[in-house]
Write a structure and sequence with these properties.
431 residues; alpha/beta; Urease, subunit C, domain 1; 2 domains; 16 helices
Length: 431
């Protein structure tokens, strides 16, 4: 594999500075710390060899070309912005079916109950997913991964969740692995305990299903799941059931995640943090006890602006999380019902305009902190030895990416030292 030298970088985010997560800092101090964490370099050079970063820093400090592993290929960034590849730490990318009519009905005032009675909601996705062939589901996920890649995403978490019963969820887990093997994006699979099917919402059938899910977790681990996620809310799993599932997952060696405090307060965020969860998701209804537990356990807050916007929920309190010293990550929550987007750029814009985050904080939330939340700590930064996953942007300042609402500014995307997107178009990905 050739050594690539990307020179003439106007602005390079190495994201190699000290962690900005410190409790009790003022807003001004927090913004200064976030910018230091980005470790911005101007007039920079990036050198890639054997799929890893060899050098990322000032052009004046760059090693001479003749000293690099040969052959050497040189490319110009034309003075533009270069950053680590983005990480999306919360998605539901594997499903079949269409819920656009439901989207229209909800915007016109139809309630969730009315939509469900007409065959909509999660049940419609579960039915369509169950009826779809394995090949169709893998193909659909690959296309969604391609879209994510063209938006600058080079690592991603993908949940099961549209099977509801153990055998169907394990099927989706296997299909996530099949798609992962065919795509350059680094995929972290999560086994999701989503909601209970109508046949098991109460009594002995409910107890039986929860027990079966708990018994399935060891097999999910063997089948390649990195983590479990439990959805704890009204209409989903109770706090007691969530504790049972997370505790069992911890015993079999899965990382812990939890959909927590989205529609109602349940105490799930505090519970998950006390069990040393890697992340908790949503958090629109988070309380002080939950924040304190998360800060103590260093649990990452995965905030999902797309879902809050679509469902018209209160915006998560990023300022309170920042003040508590909690690391924040941003995710698209890409799913067919409540956040149908694969644009982390849009999530950054919403975080800045609606949640009070600075541009520097938003960048940390889709790079290093997002990668940390899914256990990919070597990604989301451009330092020697890190995977050579990076994006060249049609921008010359990192703030411009946050400023533009929904416009894709990606010029090219490299994964493991191979250009996968050129001029915004997916390439064959050859070396």
């Amino acid at each position: 594999m050739a050594t690539w030298v990307l020179r003439d970088i106007g602005e390079l985010l190495t994201v190699s500075g000290p962690s900005p997560v410190r409790a009790g800092t003022t807003e001004q101090e927090a913004q200064q710390q976030a910018e230091r964490a980005l470790a911005v370099v101007h007039d920079a050079t990036l050198i890639v060899s054997d799929g890893k970063v060899l050098f990322a820093g000032p052009s004046s400090d760059s090693p001479a070309l003749h000293l690099l592993p040969q052959p050497v290929l040189v490319q110009s960034a034309r003075g533009q912005l270069v950053t680590p590849g983005l990480c999306d730490p919360h998605t539901h990318l594997i499903w079949a079916g269409d819920r656009s009519r439901e989207f229209d009905l909800r915007n016109l005032g139809a309630s969730y109950q009315t939509i469900a009675e007409q065959g909509g909601g999660i049940a419609s996705t579960v039915k369509a997913t169950d009826q779809a062939s394995d090949e169709a589901l893998v193909d659909a996920m690959l296309k969604r991964l391609d879209t994510a890649l063209c938006h600058g995403i080079t690592s991603i978490e993908v949940k099961t969740g549209y099977g509801l019963v153990p055998a169907s969820e394990l099927r989706l887990l296997r299909l996530i692995h099949a798609a992962r093997a065919q795509h350059p994006i680094a995929v972290s699979p999560t086994f999701l305990c989503h909601v209970l099917p109508p046949s098991a919402r109460e009594g002995s059938e409910r107890e039986r299903l929860v027990a079966e899910l708990a018994d399935t977790l060891e097999l999910a681990k063997q089948d390649g799941a990195d983590a479990i996620d439990v959805y704890c809310d009204v209409g989903a799993f109770t706090l007691t059931e969530t504790r049972r599932l997370l505790t069992r997952a911890q015993q079999v060696g899965l990382l812990l995640r939890c959909h927590a405090e989205q529609f109602t307060y349940t105490g799930a965020a505090q519970l998950a943090a006390e069990l040393s969860a890697r992340s908790v998701e949503h958090l629109e209804q988070l309380d002080e006890a939950g924040r304190a537990a998360m800060a103590h356990s260093q649990t990452v807050a995965n905030l999902l602006p797309g879902a809050a916007l679509t469902l018209r929920l209160p915006w998560p309190d990023a300022a309170a999380l920042r003040h508590a010293g909690i690391a924040i990550a941003l995710g698209t929550d890409c799913n067919p019902g409540s956040s149908y987007t694969q644009s982390q750029q849009l999530m950054m814009s919403l975080a800045c305009t609606q949640m009070g985050m600075s541009c520097a904080e938003a960048w940390l939330a889709v790079t290093r902190q997002a990668a940390r939340s899914i256990g990919l700590g070597d990604r989301g930064q451009l330092v020697p030895g890190a995977p050579a996953d990076f994006v060249v942007w049609s921008a010359d300042d990192f703030r411009q990416v946050c400023q533009q609402l929904g416009h894709n500014l990606v010029r090219s995307v490299w994964v493991g030292g191979i250009e996968q997107v050129r001029d915004g178009v997916r390439t064959a990905g050859s070396a």
